[in-house]
């Protein structure tokens, strides 16, 4: 993906993070309190935001340094991490399906790999 596409992706992911976070705080507050999953949901929203901002910054950096091809892979890994890490925590918080906790680390590994690809991109110049 090019810088502009990454910024657009980050904008959509950011809008989703705000919507999900607001819905959790207002519409799901009682459910999350009853099930004891408020902290889990908040962790998902927090990581969703952190990595959305990272994708946004990667998009800006990709516009400045288009020769850093690994940035696209870094952003893709972070999107995958949001879907798997945050998505599994969102679903776990709402449904109580505990086996989803087993796939959450896959998303965490994708986040780590994404950051490593940023490092690799910056090292190759």
Q: Which spans have pLDDT < 50 for at least 5 consecutive residues?
A: none
> How many angstroms separate the termini?
19 Å
Helix content: over 70%
Element order: H for helix, E for strand: HHHHH
For the record, the count of structural domains works out to 1
Main sheet makeup: none
Number of strands: 0
Note the beta-strand portion. under 5%
Principal-axes geometry comes out as: elongated
Structure, described:
- The chain is mostly helical.
- The protein has one domain (3-123).
- It is built from five helices and no strands.
- The longest helix is centred in the middle third of the chain and has 27 residues, at 38-64.
- The protein is elongated and about 50 Å long.
Quick overview of this protein structure:
By secondary structure, the protein is mostly helical. It contains 5 helices and no strands. α1 runs antiparallel to α3.
Describe the structure using short key phrases.
125 residues; mainly alpha; 5 helices; 0% strand; elongated
Give the helices and strands, then pairings.
Blueprint: H1 3-26, H2 29-35, H3 38-64, H4 70-95, H5 104-123
Helix pairs in contact: 1-3, 3-4, 4-5
